Amino acid sequence: MEDGQVVVKRKSDAAAERALHGTTRAVIANMIHGVSSGFERALQVEGVGYRAELQGKDLALFVGYSHPVKMEPPAGISFEVDQKTRIIKVLGYDREVVGQTAAEIRGVRPPEPYHGKGIRYVGEKVRRKAGKAGKGAK
Question: Rounded to two decimals, what is the model's pTM?
Fold first, then answer.
């Protein structure tokens, strides 16, 4: 700590120490950002009949399986669900855990390229494929 700021210094200019210097600085900066304002990752549920809802603290995903997929939030993570826009927000103070939890939710039903249905990150572009060609006239 110097003058109320966290300062990261290295002992030498060796390549390994330079690499760890940047990593250490970034990890500390993420810790400070997480505690002061927190991290958020938004996911969008796309598809007819697909939806997400909160059941207490748990997230219930209705994404085309015969049963709802329930996900319990890890320590320090909370979920918000907007029913109208079908957006799930993963909130927390640890950037790594927020990203991992969002990836696990997306992994329940990743977006598929033929119809575009599934769970995707907000702003994620899904490349669409053409699908089968119909029977042509002879």
Answer: 0.83
